[in-house]
Design goal:
The protein is of the alpha/beta class. The protein is built from 37 helices and 20 strands. The strands form 5 sheets. An 11-stranded mixed sheet has the order 9-8-7-10-11-20-19-18-14-12-13, with helices on both faces. Strands 15-16-17 form a 3-stranded antiparallel sheet. A hairpin with a 1-residue loop joins β7 and β8 (584-592). α6 runs antiparallel to α7 (148-162) and α16 runs parallel beside α18 (369-389).
Amino acid sequence: MPHEEDNTVGDGADRTTDDEVNPTTDHGVTRLYGEPFDSGFAQAERLHLAADLAAAVAVYEELLTLAESVEDSPDVRFLRAHLLADLTSVHLAATDLAGAEDTNKRSRALLDDIASAPMGPRGRQLWLEMLLRTLIAGADLLRRTGRLDEALACLDEAAVGLADFDDPDGLRTSELGLNRVHLLMDRGEWGAAEDQASALLSTTPTTAVETVPRLLVALGLICSSTGRFDPAEDYFARAEDHFRAIGDTGGQRTLLAHRAYAAMHRGELDLAERLFAEASAFFEQQRWFGDLAVCEQARAFLAGRRGDAIGAEELLAASLSRFERLGASIAAADTMLLGAQHAYDRGDIDEMKRLAQGARDVYQEREIYERCAQVDLMLARTLEDNLNRTDHGDHERESIDTALSFALPAALALEAARYDFATAHARSQWLELADEAMQLVFRLAMRRQDQGLLFELAEHRCAGASLALDRTPPAAEPVEDPTSVFPSAAMKSYAHHEHAEGAMTLGGVAAEAAASVGLRVGPPPKVRMSAQSGPGRVALQEYIAAAEFRYHRRIVHEDAVPFWITDDLTSRPVVQVRLADAGDLFMTWTWAGGARGFGTGQGPCAEVDQAVRELTDALPGAGDGAEGMRRAFDSGALAEHGSERRLARTLAEALWPEQLTAQIRQVADRAGRPLVRIQPSPWVAQVPWELLAVDDGTDVRLIDLADVVTTAPASLRPRTPTAPRPQGTDTGPVVLVLDPRVPGFRADSPLGSVLGPPGSDPELMSLVRNRLDAGAVVPSVASPAEAFRRTDLDRDWLSGVLRKGARRLMYVGHVSGAPVEGGQSEDGTLHLCCDAGASGLAEPLRTHRPLSAKDLLLGSLPLRADGEPGARIWPAPPRVALIGCESGGDMRFAESFGLATAMLHNGAELVTATRWVLPTSFAFHRLAQLPESIRPLSEAIVAVDTAHEDEDPVRSLGGWQREQLDRWRADGRIEHSPLLWAAMTCIVV
């Protein structure tokens, strides 16, 4: 070992103290072996950081030659192993994979030779550190050459050695973790890679000056690969600062290619071309041929996009040749797959098949199921394109079936891949990438004119993600007879669960940090295509079976739910309507409750988008504050009867099939007013369906023909439905939370009073008095005025009263909706009387901590080892009213886990909430000059309270809304405008 004078490998424990043998630094040179080795190591490291890799190799080889001339001993062998390990790092940086493999094997052999030599504690630690370096470098080499299972085994071996290594700063631990992240990225397991990289970044010491920027780069690549370009650039900028601080020129230059990749994916093709060209020039100059091949591959794609077929072919050929010489089989297959697409574009079908099959063979051999799916989807797209170009005659149905057999399992796996991500934001961005595959599936189903398939697609898409409180995703169960489902098709996978347990997971604090980042969800439940329990057809069952077998990924939860239940609500005729976004807007409906029938509809994207834009322009925007409300009153379509009627007709023409209206009329004439249960897609979640002018030339609205209720995803439905509790037999109190005081906010501030001074509103005073006369009310008050603007209604108080049992909860106050673009509905909050010291998951606002939907769902599980889920802390009563701004905005998100659905999850049977920002009575007074004696919001609150006391709250609330509509049609007065009352909707499961 360094500075040892005898032939033992030790730390000199018999001759010196540990402090005396620890390496020292003199003028930037670490004293380990003596001259000229110490100065040589320092010089080579400087050259490595300066990206002069050829010069660094020359220095190391010169030192290696000198070391080999020294008399052989364990110390000399260790020196040679050290030099070879450093040479391996340089070869890997230069993508000289053959050279790296040679030097790494030689280093490992030397270390094995001296493994049994006598060593003191310090010597053993130095030997272990060098062994870890060779194992980690070996894993990196195996990963780059596509031998991912072998790479994992190598990292596992390193992890065993790490247990005996004294790593107080966690440097080797972080390096090992970084390599696991890279391996997950290569497998396409973006969610798991992000979890581990984020956890590592939070635990890696700042002294790990080389690992930190590479972790930041990895996170940037994960974000740019999954559609999150702003955080990707943030990570790249932070990595650049670290690379600059340590003088790593090569790291700074490689960021050019990473930023080019991000620009290409976000559609900035000119910028991507410029950055790739600049990076290519550097890589070619430095002879970094692997990085150069990656740039050539990307530039070939860009050349194809701009119509330069010749340039694309030349770049593809160069990239493929370099990858093949390097032995980078997976990267070479990626180039082949891109070449297959170019071959199809120029009409060379045989060449396309050859290249696609060659790429798939590599992916299949390496168990890279993600890339296999790219072949699937490409084949499905080319089949669709061919169907559009040529007449398949009697074989058209067969061609469509073949395309679906490729596309649908792959699309299901793409959607299911989002469950790997820890945050709803990441999952929503991933879904945007995955949506193209599902759009292809819907187009093929429409082309096949297969209503059954469209029904099942809609049911599966609308089933909703399942809340995952255990954080452990279930592994897919293999299909016993894979030949019974679409054989011989290439597959896609975003997880490799054979390796997902144990070695591929972090332990201890890092694992907990990664797991608690956001709201975890799992796959949707199986949807049984009948209301009866027991075995029966599951929506998309053969495609799900194919996907789970081929992709090694769970597509659906093991539990099953019927696709709808009506007996728990009413025995009258009911039609269940579901909407799904897939390019166009797709609708399915089916009848029950004494009526029979079904149908499907399709709203063209342009028409739906225009109608939704007009509606959005008419609503007060959540982020626009007072100005948005003023605009809604001054020029919004909902504030004037003529413009509102035109908007209602525009929405009906774009969204509502005339065939369904005819069926509703027929049922109403024969069996009375039906119930329309609508599960909207995120695209149309704010549509006031009651308002739709469903007849051309008349002012008949949907609510004139039927009662309307919103339905939540099936994943919120109890797995074993129980008989409904009769409202009259529930003797619990009514919990009233009426305009609570928010700490730190005055009455006239943004989170100030909603209802005005206590006791100033006769209608609301009468409401409280009626509830007091009818039975128990919480909080206990001596007079109605004491129920308003209280300061003691915090989350702990609410938990206590709900745990004791209640039959109703009415909340009137401030609600802060989550931004839709963030994708995290669970960030929506209620504003109670909680101060900033309250325990919770939402960030404080001044001296106040809001109660979030995430709190209601997760409870204290992320905060304490003995935590409880939210359903135990805040069990919801059967009926809940959340009267606040956009309290029912959950449906606007791909994952509905906002306040309203959190209450349903926690036990509520019905929640009344709002679709958009509500105008207060004060807003009507100030913006519409109504006298103070007219209080539209108070009237709405009373109507909701009355409905929740009724045996059929949906019918009751609908009756009040019809009264408001009649007044609106009769006099057009602003207090009867749908701006307020059409925002209200009842939500059930």
